[in-house]
Amino acid sequence: MLAVDRKRRIVEYVRQYRTATVAMLAAEFNVHSATIRRDLAEIEQEGALRRTHGGVIMEQWTHDEPSFQERRNQHLEEKIRIGRHAASLVEDGENIIIDSGTTTLHIATHLVNRSNVTVITNDMNVAVELRDAPGVKVILTGGELYPSSYMLNGMFTDHVLQSLHVEKAFIGTPALHPQHGLMHPEALLVPAKQRMIKAAGEIVVVCDHTKIGKLSLHTVAPNSSIHTLITGNEATDFDVKPFQERGITVLQV
Fold first, then answer.
1. How far apart are CA 69 and CA 246, in angstroms?
2. CA–CA gap between residue 101 and residue 172 (Å, rounded)
3. CA 83, 85, 89, 93: dihedral to nearest 10 degrees?
4. Which of these, 82, 110, 93, 92, lies nearest to 171 by C-alpha position?
5. Where are the alpha helices (DSSP H) in 18-146?
6. Taking the mean position of all CA atoms in its chain, how far away is CA 130?
7. DSSP structure string for 177-218
8. In angstroms, rounded to a whole number, what is the distance separating the alpha carbons of residues 107 and 103?
9. Residue 226 class from Cβ within 10 Å (0-12 exposed, 13-18 middle, 19+ buried)?
């Protein structure tokens, strides 16, 4: 069998079974494991599959996000844990940015009793959560309202964000890839996230374990921009190891 045909069939095999080891593929195609490893390296460069320790998996894509109401209740207990731990990283007296999202919302929930904290956000849900917190000043970015999620976005949002300087930014994402970094399916939402990242001295990404390893259409920022990743203890060693190897502090809660 020609190498090009074998690689095509490897992709088809993994597409069917989602994952495979080198030993399984070597037996399936009756070739030496070294040949399979060489094939997998070439297939990975082409972007069809992602190698793991001893095998390969099919890349998972995020093409769009479910509605805010759907996402709000998905992995809720994990998101609460992530939000609580992220809030514990905020020091009294700090200025922070909280990105819009169903995970970042739980950061705000755990900041209500803090003192002398300024929160800048493009999420009206976050602002409402903090409206009665006496020690928290809330600044809304302004912008076009997305009624389905109460997120603010667009030219006015970007203009405000590019004038800010804060200690920390807490960023949510629908896709976090070990090679391509923070990703998003919606082009219109990318600039605001990029300006949040540029405005902050420290970037903390918060996402549940299902977002890790996924690809999407647009790269928001490379992994080199991330200082800390907070995710659930549902994430596996395979999920988090690539980020740790890039010098990112990974906190599983």
1. 34
2. 6
3. 50
4. 82
5. 22-29, 33-46, 68-72, 76-88, 105-109, 124-129
6. 24
7. ETTTEEEES-GGGHHHHHHHHHHEEEEEEE--GGGBTEE-SE
8. 7
9. buried
CB 129 within 8 A of CB 156: no
Please state the pTM of the whole predicted model: 0.82
* Contacts of 222 by beta carbon, 8 Å cutoff, 6+ apart: 180, 181, 182
Amino acid at 193: K
> Using one digit for the tens of pLDDT, what is the confidence trace for 50-104?
777 778 877 777 877 767 777 877 899 999 999 999 999 999 999 999 999 999 9
Single out the residue of 121, 135, 210 nearest to residue 173, CA to CA. Answer: 210
The winner for highest mean pLDDT among 8-12, 106-110, 213-217, 241-245 is 106-110
Nearest alpha carbon to residue 149 among 69, 65, 62, 64: 69
Which of 179, 185, 240 has its CA nearest to residue 207?
240
* Maximal C-alpha separation, the chain: 71
Structure tokens belonging to residue 212:
């890790």
Computed over every residue of the chain, the mean pLDDT equals 92
The length of the chain in residues reads: 253
Q: How close are the terminal C-alpha atoms of the chain, in Å? A: 48
Compute CA distances 20 → 49, 59, 204, whole Å: 11, 13, 33
Average pLDDT over residues 163-191: 96
Written as one letter, the residue type at 175 is A
Tokens of 29: 């195609």
